[in-house]
Amino acid sequence: MRPQLITWKVQGELPGNFRLGAQFAQVSGVSLGMAKTVLEVAERAAPAQAAVWHILPREVPEDGSAAETWARVDGIETEIRALPDGPQRCQPKPGDTVVSVIVGAEGEPMLVGCHRHQPGDLGDPAALLRLALPPEAPSRAWMKMEQALDWLGIQEDLKGRTVLELGSAPGGASLSLLSRGATVYGVDTGAMDARVLAHPSFHHLKVAAGDLRPGMVPDQVDLLVSDMNLEPRVVCQYVEKFASRLRPLGLILTLKINSAKVEAELPDLIHRIRDWAPGPVYVRQLPANRQEVTLVSWQ
Ligand SMILES: C[S@@+](CC[C@H](N)C(=O)[O-])C[C@H]1O[C@@H](n2cnc3c(N)ncnc32)[C@H](O)[C@@H]1O
């Protein structure tokens, strides 16, 4: 066990459809072995016959990997993509076999593994891990929103879409949504960042979620977001109420895990959200999440 890389030895055969299903893992799969060179990587990966490969640094500090780490990862990726019959794609489709190559420190062997891509898996974990907080972002929530949109696969274009965000101050997530063309209604008694407030598509509703009344927001919204620092059970009471009225196509909720009690209640809560969510529900800890997980659902 090393920081951010955990391996288990298994006695006997794993079933062909084995999935770890860990919500706190960015990626998990079955090991194909270690490799010192790119040619050895290709040998280890050959039985998987994967069209999609992800090359990832072994450890990603909270504020992102250093430029030299990415330079080494990029160098290996370039060599791998130049291999005869080398992989061509980064974005898998459900059912695709994906090879992951975990690149450690200089001189350390690489770990090669594979998994079958399923809905709810990260499309390209490397793309999420490469995101860095821009200096103009009002808060780290910018990263959380960028990563959630990437995960949902709706990152490019939110033009014409309406978003209601509960717990919007100071505005990192709102800025991410606004810069993709969305109209954002931000609900928070806290102060919003001046750049977000000045945006023509931003509407600040300076009230608590419980005081939001019909008429303050449109009759229907496309995306319902919550980043309120309240117990997940309370967040879900608000979100369910708004979802039944505003019929969103999607949800992006951060659920704060501030105690062991909250953690223990979470599976049951997620189960109940599945009853009213607009589409399939997926939960995971994104790289930018601290003591919290992100729940997404999209029609
Ligand atoms: C983690 S911060 C939100 C960060 C924000 N999403 C961003 O992008 O910068 C949590 C916010 O939830 C707000 N909050 C807590 N309870 C709330 C409630 N009942 N209604 C609305 N906002 C609430 C707090 O005022 C706080 O600004």
Condensed summary:
This protein has 299 residues and is an alpha/beta fold.
Low-confidence stretches: none
CATH architecture of the largest domain: 3-Layer(aba) Sandwich
Instruction: Note the beta-strand portion.
Output: 15-25%
Strand order of the largest sheet: 7-6-5-8-9-11-10
How many helical elements? 8
Number of domains: 2
Bound heterogens, unique: S-adenosylmethionine
In CATH terms, the superfamily of the largest domain is: Vaccinia Virus protein VP39
Distance between the termini: 38 Å
Order of helices and strands: EHEHEEHHEHEHEEHEHEE
Number of strands: 11
Oligomeric assembly: single chain
Rounded Rg: 21 Å
Query: Kindly state the mean pLDDT as a whole number?
Result: 93
Q: What spatial form do the alpha-carbon principal axes imply?
A: globular
User: What is the name of the CATH topology of the largest domain?
Assistant: Rossmann fold
InterPro entries: RNA_MeTrfase_FtsJ_dom, SAM-dependent_MTases_sf
Domain Ribosomal RNA methyltransferase FtsJ: 139-229
Organism: Prosthecobacter algae
Pfam family, one: FtsJ
Describe this structure in words.
The protein is an alpha/beta fold and 299 residues long. The protein has two domains: 30-128; 133-298, Vaccinia Virus protein VP39 (Rossmann fold, 3-Layer(aba) Sandwich), CATH 3.40.50.150. Helix content is 28%, strand content 21%. The chain contains eight helices and eleven strands. The strands form two sheets. Strands 7-6-5-8-9-11-10 form a seven-stranded mixed sheet, sandwiched between helices. A four-stranded mixed sheet has the order 1-4-3-2. α4 (141-152) packs across α5 and α7 runs parallel beside α8 (260-276). The two termini are 38 Å apart. The structure holds S-adenosylmethionine. The site of S-adenosylmethionine has 23 residues, from α5.
